[in-house]
C-alpha cells in the first residue's frame, strides 16, 4: 500500500482556506439586522420562556437566517425580576430602551405578559419600532377597553406599531363562558389576579356568562404574592358553585388555587376549575400536581393543539420543532413562531434595513399563511382570525375538547 505525504505548506493552505469560508460567506451579507425578544426566563416561566425562545430561533432558521440581504441575529432579553421571578415593569422598560437604542434592531418581539406590554409599547411607539407580541391577549392594548384613553395611551405618536397574530381576550373570555355553558355548569365563582391580563379576561368571562344565563355567585381579586387561598376558597365553597373560573397565569397563583381546591375537597364535591391560556403549560400540571388537575381542570387556548395544526406552515413548525428539540412545543411556542415568521415576511417585503419601511410592511400584512390558516392585520394591529380551543387536563396532558366560540359548543 502506497503512503502519501503532503507538504506542510499545502496543509496550511487548506486550513487557511477552510477558515476563510465563513468570513467570505458573512461578507456576502450587507450587514446584520437584529430581532430583540423580551419575556420572563426565570422561575415558573422557564419552560414556557425556553419554548418561545426556541420557536423564534426555529423561525429564523427556516428563513435561512437571512432577510433582504442581511443576516438575522436574535437578542434574547429577560424581563423578569431576579427577586420575584415574574415580569417586572422596570426591567421591561430597560429592555425596550436597549432595543430602540441599537441601530441594528428592527423589531421588538415582545412581550409575554400584557402588563409588560403596557410598559414597552409607548417606548417602541415613540421610536417608530414595530413591536410584535408572542402572547399578549388583553384587548385594551389595541382597542378601547377598561382604562381611560385605551389604546391611545400606548400610542403616544398616534400611529399603530404593535401587532398580535393571535386572538385577544374579548374573544377568549366569551368563548370560555360558552364552553362553561356547554359543559353544563350553572353557578360560577370567578377569581382573578388583579393584573391586566387576569382581571381583563375574568371580566369578559363574567359579562358573557351572565348574558348566557349562568349565575355568577361571586367575583374576588387576589394578590399574586399570596400563597394561602384557603380562607377565600372556604368562602367560595360556602356559596356552592359548580365551577371556579380563574383569571391567572402560571406565576400569579393559578397552580396554588387549584392545589388548595383539591386539599379543601372542592373537587371531591363536584366543583371544577377553568382558566385561560396563561395556564396552558405543563408547568400547571407540575406545580398544581397531577392529582389535583386531572379531570378537574379546563383551559382555553387560541387555536388547535400543535400536533393538529392544519397548514403546511403549522405542520412544518411542529415536525421541525419536535425533531430539533426532542420534545413537544408547549404553550405559546407556536405563536412565538408565528410572530417571528410574519415579522421576517414584513422585513422581506420592506427590502431594506429600515424600521419605518418594516413597520409599514407589517401594517400591510394581508392573507399571510400562518400556523392555523391565513390571516391579516386589521387597522388596530390585531389578527382577523378568531380560532379558540377548549382543553381538559387528563392523564396529566391537555386533551383537546374542540373548537369553541361565543356562539359555538365544541
Question: Please, could you describe this protein's structure?
Answer:
It is globular and about 70 Å long. It is an alpha/beta fold. The protein has helices at residues 8-27, 46-62, 89-101, 114-127, 169-182, 196-211, 230-238, 254-263, 282-288, 290-293, 312-325, 333-350, 355-363, and strands spanning 31-39, 66-67, 70-78, 105-110, 130-133, 162-164, 187-192, 215-221, 243-247, 272-275, 297-301, 368-369, 374-375, 389-394, 397-403. It folds into two domains: 30-167 and 307-375, 3-Layer(aba) Sandwich (Rossmann fold), CATH 3.40.50.2300; 169-301 and 389-403, 3-Layer(aba) Sandwich (Rossmann fold), CATH 3.40.50. Helix 2 packs across helix 11. It has 13 helices and 15 strands. A seven-stranded mixed β-sheet has the order 8-7-9-10-11-14-15, covered by helices on one side. Strand 2 and strand 3 (70-78) form a beta hairpin. Mean pLDDT is 92; it is low at 1-27. The termini are far apart. The chain is 40% helix and 19% strand.
Describe this protein with a few key phrases:
410 residues; alpha/beta; 2 domains; 40% helix; disordered N terminus
Strand order across the biggest sheet?
8-7-9-10-11-14-15
Q: What is the approximate shape?
A: globular
The computed structural class is: alpha/beta
How many beta-strand runs? 15
Distance between the termini: 74 Å
Number of domains: 2
Q: Which CATH-level-2 architecture of the largest domain?
A: 3-Layer(aba) Sandwich
Helix content: 40-55%
Count of helical regions = 13
What number is the mean pLDDT? 92
The CATH H-level superfamily of the largest domain is: Response regulator
Largest sheet: 7 strands, mixed
| Rg computed from alpha carbons, rounded to a whole number of angstroms | 23 Å
**What is the class of the largest domain in the CATH system?**
Alpha Beta
Approximate strand percentage:
15-25%
pLDDT under 50 segments (min length 5)? Answer: 1-27
Order of SSEs: HEHEEHEHEEHEHEHEHEHHEHHHEEEE
Might you state the CATH topology name of the largest domain?
A: Rossmann fold
Amino acid at each position: 500500500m502506497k503512503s502519501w505525504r503532503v507538504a506542510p505548506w499545502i496543509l496550511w493552505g487548506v486550513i487557511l482556506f477552510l477558515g476563510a469560508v465563513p468570513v467570505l460567506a458573512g461578507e456576502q451579507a450587507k450587514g446584520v439586522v437584529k430581532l430583540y425578544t423580551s419575556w420572563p426566563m426565570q422561575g415558573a416561566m422557564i419552560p414556557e420562556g425556553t419554548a418561545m425562545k426556541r420557536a423564534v430561533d426555529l423561525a429564523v432558521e427556516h428563513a435561512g437566517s437571512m432577510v433582504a440581504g442581511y443576516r438575522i441575529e436574535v437578542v434574547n432579553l429577560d424581563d423578569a425580576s431576579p427577586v420575584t421571578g415574574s415580569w417586572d415593569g422596570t426591567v421591561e422598560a430597560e429592555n425596550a430602551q436597549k432595543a430602540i437604542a441599537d441601530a441594528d434592531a428592527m423589531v421588538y418581539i415582545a412581550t409575554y405578559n400584557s402588563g409588560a406590554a403596557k410598559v414597552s409599547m409607548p417606548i417602541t411607539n415613540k421610536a417608530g419600532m414595530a413591536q410584535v407580541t408572542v402572547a399578549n391577549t388583553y384587548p385594551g392594548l389595541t382597542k378601547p377597553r377598561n382604562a381611560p384613553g385605551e389604546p391611545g395611551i400606548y400610542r403616544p405618536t398616534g400611529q399603530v406599531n404593535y401587532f398580535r397574530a393571535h386572538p385577544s381576550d374579548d374573544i377568549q373570555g366569551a368563548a370560555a363562558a360558552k364552553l362553561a355553558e356547554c359543559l353544563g355548569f350553572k353557578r360560577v365563582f370567578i377569581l382573578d389576579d388583579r393584573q391586566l391580563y387576569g382581571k381583563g379576561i375574568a371580566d369578559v368571562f363574567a359579562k358573557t356568562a351572565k348574558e348566557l344565563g349562568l349565575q355568577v355567585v361571586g367575583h374576588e381579586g387576589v394578590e399574586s404574592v399570596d400563597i394561602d387561598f384557603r380562607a377565600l376558597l372556604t368562602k367560595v365553597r360556602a356559596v356552592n358553585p359548580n365551577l371556579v373560573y380563574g383569571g391567572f397565569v402560571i406565576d400569579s397563583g393559578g397552580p396554588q388555587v387549584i392545589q388548595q381546591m383539591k386539599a379543601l375537597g372542592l373537587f371531591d364535591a363536584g366543583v371544577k376549575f377553568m382558566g385561560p391560556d396563561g395556564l396552558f403549560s405543563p408547568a400547571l400540571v407540575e406545580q398544581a400536581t397531577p392529582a389535583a388537575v386531572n379531570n378537574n381542570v379546563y383551559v382555553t387556548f387560541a387555536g388547535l393543539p400543535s400536533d393538529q395544526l392544519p397548514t403546511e406552515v403549522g405542520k412544518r413548525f411542529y415536525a421541525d420543532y419536535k425533531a430539533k428539540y426532542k420534545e413537544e412545543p408547549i404553550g405559546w411556542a407556536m405563536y412565538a413562531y408565528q410572530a417571528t415568521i410574519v415579522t421576517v415576511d414584513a422585513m422581506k417585503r420592506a427590502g431594506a434595513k429600515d424600521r419605518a419601511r418594516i413597520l409599514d410592511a407589517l401594517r400591510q400584512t394581508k392573507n399571510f399563511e400562518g400556523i392555523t390558516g391565513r390571516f391579516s392585520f386589521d387597522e388596530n394591529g390585531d389578527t382577523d382570525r378568531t380560532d379558540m380551543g377548549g382543553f381538559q387536563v387528563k392523564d396529566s396532558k391537555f386533551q383537546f375538547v374542540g373548537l369553541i366560540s361565543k356562539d359555538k359548543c365544541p
